[in-house]
Design a protein that fits this description.
Layout: E1 9-10, E2 13-18, E3 21-25, H1 27-36, H2 66-79, H3 87-94, H4 102-117, E4 122-124
Antiparallel strand pairs: 1-2, 2-3, 3-4
Length: about 120
């Protein structure tokens, strides 16, 4: 067993200690996700999802890259553990993973654009 001192970073979660308690966030994880999707300098979205947006399977719609959609939604699911404000939007886009279409990929990318706005947010424990 090895003593690695105070925890600072683990599985994409940054841990900061102060007099007020422990603050956990995923700033680096979000920045890596923005870089992976090539929208690091994008205009941030105000909300993670368009209000009252309904996602469903459209007939004869263009299909999105299934592998990329899986990676993005998987990372968003992991991210929603410390960002509860995106949980509903991530749940909606994750329901249609069997055959992702372009408008569903756009909804997932909107969540990422929203994350650009809240990069430094986290949870105080």
């Amino acid at each position: 067993m090895k003593d690695l001192r105070r925890l600072k970073y683990f599985l994409g979660i940054e841990v900061l200690r102060s007099q007020l308690g422990i603050f956990i966030c995923k700033k680096k994880y979000i920045l890596n996700l923005l870089g992976e999707t090539w929208i690091i300098d994008c205009k941030p979205a105000e909300t993670p999802m368009i209000p009252n947006q309904k996602l469903y399977m459209k007939n004869e719609a263009d299909l999105a890259d299934k592998g990329q959609y899986y990676r993005i939604v998987g990372k968003l699911i992991y991210l929603s553990h410390t960002q509860p404000d995106i949980a509903h939007a991530v749940g909606v886009v994750s329901q249609l993973m069997h055959q992702p279409q372009v408008h569903q990929m756009e909804a997932a990318m909107r969540i990422i654009r929203y994350l650009r706005k809240i990069t430094g947010y986290g949870i105080n424990v």
